[in-house]
Design the sequence.
């Protein structure tokens, strides 16, 4: 057994350099404070009320510029909305469909199976409306940045006055967490930006946290299933390993080795 | 012997069917000789000998999950990234299959690296196992190619730019280099034809690896397994592979999958690059192009040499030199346990490779390329100078007369 622990330690030691690069690259920027997310931990999951608040922030604020291409309206049932609520939510949006029998494209109310419509028809229009910058799609944003949800949360709150002597490009803002510190997105999150129906606190920190949690759900919608399946599978494998060890010991009992 | 047992009437129908089949295709006897009761193995193998079967297990996991991924994946530049997200979001348990496959590549390499290091420490490459060692290097090369091709398929930023950088290695070849690159790309840039051929080859190569593993095990059975003492095992010191080592491997597998599952279920993206969750964009180069961790030491060797052609030669040479290892190591003692000087240099070499891996992950600025150059020089000095010289000058510790000698002493 001792020998096996040694082998396991070697496996971990070999894996360390692989984890190292990402963390070292993150260290080039300002140290990211670690937030206490509901989805951290062995059985961590999403807080449905928080996801609904975060969706409200996305819908009222972010969606003006940022698409959420990989999310369909039907996915919002995972936020705790009923099928009826999802239908009426989708019906607030219009999507293009067609061609119809006369060969024309037409507009209709969105259905739960539709993806969330994009704010801009194409990249050129998005850049034109945003001073040349392209607002990234947010479906995977918490997985597509070093630091993940902690980075997104702190970025949203990290707007500051540039230090004296720091030359800013026109149209950009100073953010202490953004690589290079000059971000094309102006400061969006502020105290009282939205009013929550459930009366939850709506200071800037809470709003940023709610919308980041929502975006992490959008990036990793199967996270809860992953954690709960993982616990069962791993416990099963542990019991299997113990039984295998006992069987092995019994079989090897009379072999000097 | 009673007539009841030997007579045909004494046999069960199953037994008769089995013997009928064995007389025509003796596949059960063949398996029994390959990995069963008729395969004698030294009794003193330690847990470092578990990693061969673990590597085979990981190959099976990769092929199994890969087949299901291919059912839902679309190899087209405008659809590949979306189809991977489709797998993650809409396909039943698609997230599990993909995370098992993506992390499986890393765990396959971890297992194979330990397997290789075990062979290097215990001298498993030495006579009469040189061909076994060669086939192992071929498997490793095929794995590197397969992993590279597979990493391109999700068509994220790092997929695209990694493919661009790595295929460009071949442009260093004088004269025909650029033609080779055009051939690899199927055009004049990394584009849809590149993705299509990479998908096809990524599906093909694992089955080449399966074939090489057959040869690897065949070559293993001719001399039999090496052991931690590195001395030839007498028949009395051998025990059948089944049940002893099968059960030991099953236990090792149990421990291994616990670690593997922890990565798959709780840290599925820890070994990946966040940039690969951004769709490939040929007009925007990522800040740092970093290959997957298992290539980093070789990437460091490439970048440490100011001359591109020489860098490419040394990068490939750092693996190809392993083919000559059985002759570069001039010591006749196989096991590092009896070679005090070799042990020191072996550990130094591992540290050197880890440093090179770290160098490969860093942007090549400041002191980093110098560290990489020193690490590269040491890497080759280890094989070309230290191993031959240590083999000549070192006085090994006395070898035991047989496996049972130290084993029985320890048992007393």
Sequence:
């Amino acid at each position: 057994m001792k020998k096996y622990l040694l082998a396991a330690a070697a496996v971990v030691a070999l894996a360390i350099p692989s984890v190292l690069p990402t963390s070292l690259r993150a260290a080039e920027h300002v140290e990211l404070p670690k937030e206490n997310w509901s989805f951290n931990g062995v059985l961590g999951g999403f807080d449905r009320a928080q996801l609904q608040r975060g969706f409200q922030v996305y819908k009222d604020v972010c969606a003006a510029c940022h698409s959420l291409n990989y999310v369909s309206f039907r996915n919002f049932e995972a936020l705790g909305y009923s099928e009826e609520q999802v239908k009426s939510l989708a019906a607030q949006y219009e999507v293009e469909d067609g061609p119809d029998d006369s060969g024309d494209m037409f507009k209709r109310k969105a259905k739960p199976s539709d993806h969330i419509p994009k704010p801009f028809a194409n990249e050129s229009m998005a850049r034109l409306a945003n001073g040349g910058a392209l607002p990234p799609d947010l479906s995977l944003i918490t997985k597509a940045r070093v630091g993940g949800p902690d980075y997104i949360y702190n970025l949203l709150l990290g707007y500051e006055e540039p230090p004296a002597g720091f030359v800013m490009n026109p149209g950009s803002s100073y953010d202490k967490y953004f690589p290079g510190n000059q971000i094309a997105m102006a400061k969006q999150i502020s105290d009282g930006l939205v009013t929550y129906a459930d009366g939850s606190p709506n200071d800037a920190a809470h709003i940023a946290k709610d919308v980041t949690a929502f975006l992490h759900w959008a990036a990793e919608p199967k996270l809860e299933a992953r954690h709960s399946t993982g616990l069962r599978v791993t416990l099963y494998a542990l019991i299997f390993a113990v039984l295998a060890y006992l069987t092995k010991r019994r079989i090897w009992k009379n072999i000097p080795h | 012997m009673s007539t009841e047992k030997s007579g045909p009437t004494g046999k069960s129908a199953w037994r008769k069917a089995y013997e009928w089949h064995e007389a025509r295709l003796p596949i059960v006897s063949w398996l029994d000789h390959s990995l069963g009761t008729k395969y004698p193995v030294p009794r003193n193998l330690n847990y470092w000998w578990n990693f061969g079967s673990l590597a085979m297990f990981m190959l099976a996991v990769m092929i199994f999950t890969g087949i299901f991924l291919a059912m839902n994946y679309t190899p087209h530049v405008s659809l590949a990234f979306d189809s991977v997200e489709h797998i993650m979001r809409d396909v039943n348990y698609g997230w599990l299959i993909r995370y098992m496959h993506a992390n499986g590549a890393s765990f396959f390499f971890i297992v194979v690296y330990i397997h290789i290091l075990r062979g290097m420490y215990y001298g498993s490459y030495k006579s009469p196992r040189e061909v076994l060692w060669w086939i192992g290097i071929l498997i490793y090369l095929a794995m590197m190619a397969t992993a590279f091709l597979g990493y391109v398929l999700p068509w994220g930023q790092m997929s695209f730019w990694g493919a661009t950088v790595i295929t460009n290695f071949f442009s260093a070849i004088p004269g025909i280099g650029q033609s080779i690159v055009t051939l690899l790309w199927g055009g004049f840039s990394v584009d849809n034809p590149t993705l299509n051929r990479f998908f096809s080859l990524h599906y093909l190569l694992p089955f080449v690896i399966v074939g090489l593993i057959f040869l690897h095990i065949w070559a293993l059975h001719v001399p039999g397994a090496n052991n931690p003492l590195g001395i030839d095992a007498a028949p009395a010191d051998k025990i059948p592979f089944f049940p002893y080592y099968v059960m030991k491997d099953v236990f090792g597998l149990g421990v291994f999958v616990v670690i593997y599952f922890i990565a798959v279920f709780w840290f599925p993206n820890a070994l990946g690059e966040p940039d690969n969750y951004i769709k490939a964009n040929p007009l925007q180069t990522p800040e740092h192009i970093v290959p997957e961790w298992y290539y980093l030491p070789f990437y460091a060797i490439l970048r440490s040499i100011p001359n591109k052609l020489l860098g490419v030669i040394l990068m490939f040479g750092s693996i190809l030199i392993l083919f000559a290892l059985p002759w570069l190591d001039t010591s006749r003692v196989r096991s590092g346990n009896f070679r005090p000087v070799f042990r020191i240099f072996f550990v130094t070499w591992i540290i050197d490779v880890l440093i090179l891996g770290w160098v490969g992950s860093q942007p090549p600025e400041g002191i980093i390329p110098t560290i990489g150059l020193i690490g590269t020089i040491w890497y080759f000095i280890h094989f070309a100078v230290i191993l031959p010289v240590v083999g000549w000058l070192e006085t090994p510790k006395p070898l035991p007369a047989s496996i049972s000698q130290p084993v029985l002493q320890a048992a007393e």
Q: What stands out?
A: Chain A touches chain B through 54 residues (CB under 8 Å).
